[in-house]
Amino acid sequence: MTDLRLLLNNKEGQNDHHIICSITDRKGTILYANEKFCQISGYLKEELIGANHNIVNSGLHNKDFFKQLWQTVGKGNIWQGEIRNKSKDGSFYWVDTIIFPVFDQQHATQKYFSVRTVINEKKWAEQNREKTIGELQTLLFKISHGIRQPVTQIMGILELLNQHSISLNEMKELINYIHLSTTMLDNYTRELTQHVDFITKQEFSINI
Known about the structure:
The chain is of the alpha+beta class and 208 residues long. The chain is built from six helices and five strands, in the order αββαααβββαα. Strand 4 and strand 5 form a beta hairpin.
């Protein structure tokens, strides 16, 4: 265990500056934290060492999430997943995490070594896409309910004209209905175009 910390300390200046490293005991108490961990969390190394790793718990993940995590590594297996953490200033950051059990000479789990990379941009892109999907669902709802109504009205009027002889006054009334229906249809198509343009611009900004 001491050798692992010495190796990390000696190699820290040479390591990828995007990698967050930490070592905890079996209870989650932090024994080692590299500079990247301090930088992204906003805590001093002296504040992290000796604290429980839940110091950066964002509260997003439920108890079952962490129960499964601890059960996995507690059985000597490697755990990998995405976790949202909270920095000292209250802001959130996402990390892709791999936790390795560290064994003693009897092959019993002694400590846990964690390697993390920040994936904020990936998670933001996912959230934006989820928002876009929600907007598309709303748009489809408007199309199915909004546009269908004036189209149905026009089709009904055309069917009526095809089957019945009508007076001049009735003709005028039907023309008014057609005008109203086409106006509604025009408004919905304009709104549809605006929604499509807005969603396209959002998707373009995500992919830049």
